[in-house]
Structures are given as C-alpha cells and as structure tokens.
C-alpha cells in the first residue's frame, strides 16, 4: 500500500504518547466497568466505524466574497485522494472518499480506481452537480436544473446524473446523492406545484437508471442559492420525494441545511422510523449552511443525532443502514487538519452514544422522570472517551494524536513545494 506519511513519523509520535494513553485507557476502562460497560466492546465498535471524506473538502473553500487558498492545494482528483489518504492513514476513521462531478475530473477512471486501491481508499456516494454550469454545457442552470421549465435543460440534468451513476459503477460506489439549488428569488417567479412536479418526473428518470444494488439520496436544504423558495427545502418534501420514487430512494440529512434551533435529531428519528434515512452530510453551523468543522459549534447536538442512530442500531431497526459523509468547507484552517478533527468528532459522538445506559433511559422515560432521563444522556456525553478513540487509532496503525503527527510529518510543506500556488479570488468551492 502507498503510504503518504512515513510510518517512522507516526511511530515516533506515538512512542512519546503510548504510556500515558495506556494509563488513561485503563482508568477509563475501570470507570466504565463500574457502569457495567466493557471498554473493549466500545472500542471495537468505534474501530469498525468510518465516515467518508468529501473530495471537495481537501481544497481550501471560500465564501461568495473571497477565497484565500492555502499552500499545496490539490490540483486534481489524484492529488485530492492523496490528501484524503493522509486523513485515513492518521485517523483510521475515513476509509472512503465521496466524489463530486464535474468538480472532480475523472477522465482516467481506471487510473483513479487503481490509485484508490493503492492508497487503501474506497469510493462512497457520488454527488452530481446541476447547481453550477460546466464550461461547455448546452443549457444553463441559472433558472434551475431538474425542475427547470425547459424540457431540454431538465434532460441535460437527468443525463448528468445518469453519467454520475456510470462513473460510480466503475469506481465501486453504490449511491448517488442529488442536491439541487433550484428555487426562486421572488414571490411569483415559479409555480411551486409545477416545478415540484417537473422535479419528480426528472428524478424518476434518474431513478430508472439506478443499478439494483444502488440507492439514491435526495438532500434537502432550506435556502441558498435561491432565497425566496427552494424546491427541495425541508425533510417533509424530501420524504415525499423518497416515497414517490420508491424503495431505493432515501433522504440525506446535511446538518447545516436547517433553520437554527431545528430539532435535527428528531427529524433523524422520524426518517429512521419510516425507513427513509439514507445518510448524512456532517458539518456544523451557527447561522445557516456554514459548513464549519463537525462538532465545532454544538457537539451536544451531534451526540443527540448519534443517540438516535445508536438507539436504532441497538433495536435493529428495519431498513436502517445510513451512509456517513462529511461535507465541510475550510476557509481558515489546513483542510486536512479540519477533516481529521471532524472525523474524530463524529467517532466521539458515536462512542458517547454507545455508552448511554439505554435500559435506565427507557425506565426514566416510562416513569416520566424527566430530570434523570436527561441526566442519563448527559452522563454519557460528559464522559471523556478520547482514550477509546486514540487506542482504536493506535491499534489500527494510525496516530494517537493525528494533528501532532501530521504536523511532525511536514506533509503540507512537502506538497507545497510540489504543487503550484493556487489562485485566490472570487467565491465558490474549488
Ligand atoms: C449544498 C451541499 C451539497 C453539495 C455540497 C457541495 O449546500 O451541501 O451537499 O453537494 O454542498
Ligand atoms: Mn451537503
Ligand atoms: Mn450545504
């Protein structure tokens, strides 16, 4: 396997930390044992857990005002997956990459698949892009794509999604995520019913092109780029879509795509209950679709989402198999560092949710003991599970402290000397 970070660097950094980690792990093990929890069982579950890295996340993002690139920005999809493999090598929590077409130019599919294999990376859900115009396309998406008033434009968007499926098939992916920016900026600009009807028809055409073992995810988002109305604006519309399309269709929940204070964990529970939870785009937000690092603003909410997931996992909920992806934009940090920390935050929320005393919680719920019910969740959330995460990384050959090992490796300086400086300037994600 091709290793982007030298093993010696990781070993040296780990050597300085392993004694403390063992002591911390043993101590936590004793604490958890007193609560009737076997630490190794939790560690094994955490070790088996993975979240996909978005290919678009390893380049520095931007806002609609400006983009301030870092150094050593990936030039193409091959550079991007090398960066993704650094994240996986150090965290051992990100075994797959989620591609975005045509942001990722994938002319050499065979070469890309081989490179993925060499780096030990698989390919997660494919993402189509009909929210911006590709250089040579015949019809513009300025006024929409799958819901556009013009049939030829809709067909072009359908064809693009079908092409994404073909690319994904060659790479070993098994899901397509569709997010559209379609909507309107003015009352009266579009007919809500007609545009949703057109969207459903177009999505049905994409659905027809899905292989038997594939899933299609529709991703809702409250607003942006359309500021008055959005065609797929919330989980209710998203659920209708999944119902209309059929059993291979599910809803994708991007944590940043809701109004502030919306109870996302409850949306997750509803979608699980009705077998329509397809997957996640994890990130964090304070105001809107901020695409901040997962767990950086409200780690308790992330934990509460995972509490629902573990609840479903524990009772073996029918049809429950969501895919997990990160979807972030990094404007002021090294994207590799942000993505490593985010993967760790997701694993942390999972570990914390695994140690919730579910029997006690159920008894408190049934007995209407609101205070003790919420304390039961808090007891798990307050538990410092880092030794479990670090030990799981260490035993898998990763880094006890991924950011420290990464900085010690000099990877960013190395790629900065090899990859030409990328342009700063206007907004948008590279
Ligand atoms: C839209 C979105 C969607 C896109 C990604 C780049 O805001 O969350 O998932 O594919 O951002
Ligand atoms: Mn998203
Ligand atoms: Mn988004």
Automatic annotation (TrEMBL):
The protein's UniProt keywords, in alphabetical order, are: Isomerase, Manganese, Metal-binding
Q: Which GO terms describe its molecular function?
A: L-rhamnose isomerase activity
InterPro entries, per the entry: L-rhamnose_isomerase, L_rhamnose_iso, Xyl_isomerase-like_sf
Q: Where is the signal peptide?
A: none
| TM helices/strands, residue ranges | none
Q: What EC designation does it have? A: 5.3.1.-, 5.3.1.14
Entries under PANTHER family matching the protein:
L-RHAMNOSE ISOMERASE (PTHR30268:SF0)
Q: What is this protein called?
A: L-rhamnose isomerase/sugar isomerase
Which source organism? Rhizobium herbae
């Amino acid at each position: 396997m091709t290793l982007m970070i030298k093993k010696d660097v990781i070993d040296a950094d780990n050597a300085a930390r392993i004694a403390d980690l063992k002591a911390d792990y043993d101590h936590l093990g004793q604490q958890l044992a007193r609560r009737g929890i076997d630490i190794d069982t939790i560690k094994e579950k955490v070790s088996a857990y993975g979240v996909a890295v978005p290919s678009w996340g390893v380049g520095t993002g931007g806002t609609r005002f400006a983009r301030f690139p870092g150094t050593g920005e990936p030039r193409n999809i091959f550079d991007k997956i090398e960066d993704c493999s650094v994240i996986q090598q150090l965290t051992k929590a990100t075994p797959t990459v989620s591609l975005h077409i045509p942001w990722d130019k994938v002319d050499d599919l065979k070469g890309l698949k081989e490179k993925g294999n060499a780096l030990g990376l698989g390919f997660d859900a494919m993402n189509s892009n009909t929210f911006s115009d590709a250089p040579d396309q015949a019809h513009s998406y300025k006024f929409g794509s799958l819901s556009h008033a013009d049939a030829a434009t809709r067909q072009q968007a359908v064809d693009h999604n079908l092409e994404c499926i073909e690319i994904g098939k060659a790479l070993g992916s098994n899901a397509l995520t569709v997010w559209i920016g379609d909507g309107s900026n003015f009352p009266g600009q579009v007919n809500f019913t007609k545009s949703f009807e057109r969207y459903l028809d177009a999505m049905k055409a994409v659905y027809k092109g899905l292989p038997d073992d594939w899933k299609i995810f529709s991703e809702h988002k409250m607003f942006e780029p359309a500021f008055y109305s959005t065609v797929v604006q919330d989980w209710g519309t998203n659920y209708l879509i999944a119902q209309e399309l059929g059993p291979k269709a599910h809803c994708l929940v991007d944590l940043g795509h809701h109004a502030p204070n919306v109870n996302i964990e409850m949306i997750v529970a509803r979608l699980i209950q009705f077998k329509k939870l397809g997957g996640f785009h994890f990130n964090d937000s304070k105001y809107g679709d901020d695409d901040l690092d997962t767990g950086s603003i409200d780690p308790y909410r992330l934990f509460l989402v995972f509490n629902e997931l573990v609840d479903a996992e524990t009772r073996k909920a029918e049809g429950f198999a969501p895919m997990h992806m990160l979807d972030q934009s990094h404007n002021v940090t090294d994207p590799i560092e942000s993505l490593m920390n985010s993967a760790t935050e997701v694993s942390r929320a999972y570990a914390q949710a695994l140690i919730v005393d579910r029997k006690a919680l159920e008894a408190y719920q049934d007995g209407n003991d609101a205070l003790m019910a919420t304390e039961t969740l808090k007891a798990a959330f307050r538990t410092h599970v880092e030794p479990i995460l670090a030990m799981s990384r260490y035993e898998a050959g990763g880094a006890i402290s991924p950011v420290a090992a990464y900085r010690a490796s000099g990877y960013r300086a190395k790629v900065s000397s090899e990859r030409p400086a990328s342009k700063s300037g206007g907004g948008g994600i590279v």
